[in-house]
């Protein structure tokens, strides 16, 4: 539950901080407004099927995980057979920890890797075709990779996309009031969470 809450809380904080982010989200890939449709019989809102429907939002959430990473380390790995990592042969029995948070901030892979640039995932951007599962190449590992990849990533991302899309569609996220300082302090609990609960100024959209 903590990981799910943090996955959504950090993007909502960014909506309040980055004025252009709402614009980018609302106009990307068919627009968020058109992604949430009404079922005429139940009046329930649902996301249409089709994997490309929320591609930009999925990558935005993955980018958020690279900057405010929930799990700085992956589960440790015992190198039983002396594998080669970064052209170095490891002795059998070596304990390996992967700094997954740093993989998504590699300056050799991303331009200004430590800056929040969601537009890099738009068409024509350097990350427009990035694979967040790591099955083709690894430029970020928000869910691990290979046999150790999170088995519930697709379901988790789908729910996170849906919730953030609803928040973007229904609400205006206002900047902090004059004189207010946005607290972006984080602390490590079971995952990396906000040190203080999110407080945002929001109003319904017309």
Counting DSSP H or I runs of 4 or more residues, the number of helices is: 6
Distance between the termini: 32 Å
Mean pLDDT reading: 70
C-alpha-based Rg, rounded:
19 Å
Shape: globular
The helix fraction, in percent, is 25-40%
Q: What pattern of helices and strands is seen along the backbone?
A: HHHEEHEEEEHHEEEE
Q: Got a strand count?
A: 10
Estimated structural class: alpha+beta
Which strands sit side by side, in order, in the main sheet?
1-2
- Largest sheet properties: 2 strands, antiparallel
Multimeric state: single chain
Name the poorly predicted regions.
38-54
Percentage of β-strand residues: 5-15%
Task: Set down the secondary structure blueprint.
Layout: H1 2-17, H2 19-27, H3 32-35, E1 37-38, E2 45-46, H4 55-67, E3 77-79, E4 84-85, E5 88-89, E6 94-96, H5 100-103, H6 153-170, E7 171-174, E8 186-188, E9 192-194, E10 201-204
Antiparallel strand pairs: 1-2, 3-6, 4-5, 7-10, 8-9
Structure, explained:
The longest helix is centred in the last third of the chain and has 18 residues. Strand 8 and strand 9 form a beta hairpin. The strands form 5 sheets. A two-stranded antiparallel sheet has the order 1-2. A two-stranded antiparallel sheet has the order 3-6. It has a domain of 143 residues. It has 206 residues and is α+β, with helices and mostly antiparallel strands. The chain has 6 helices and 10 strands. Belongs to the cytochrome P450 family. This is Cytochrome P450 89A2-like. Its main location: membrane. It is found in: Membrane.
